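Standup notes
- DV: blocked on the single-chain target, sequence here:
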Amino acid sequence: MRYFFFISVFILLNACSSFKEVEFKGVEKVSFGKQDQSNIPLIFDVRINNPNQFNIILKKGNVDVFLNDQFIGKSLLSKKIVVQKKTDQAYPLEIKTSFSALSKAALSSLGILLGKKLVLKIDGKVVVRALIIRKKIDISFKEEISPSILLNK
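- DV (later): unblocked, structure below
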């Protein structure tokens, strides 16, 4: 029984030592959620690549979201997201924002009427879990997006 324990620990540590960073690859789609009295939820479908042999669970997260360097809101993971092993697919990330923050970002982005691209920036931390290991990952992501992505075209 004791040997079984040591072999199990060895296999577990070996699997965890081969942990590869999860890669945020881009935003595929942006949509608006159901508005309440003070918040307008924005839902970003973010493409995530998990190169590992095991699922990664995004447990907690607190990220700031900017559009053309204007703060538009925070994203707090309200429920865990399971990123499937060996996949590259999109997962929804909801951002709580206000009408005033969105209008401020829109006014500073009048260039979109001329077809200019928007710059989406996400900064923060996410706690991930793989098997029994928990790790806090810094996220700093910046991408140019087309204005049409906001219009779901």
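- Follow-up: Residues 8 and 98 are 50 Å apart (CA to CA).
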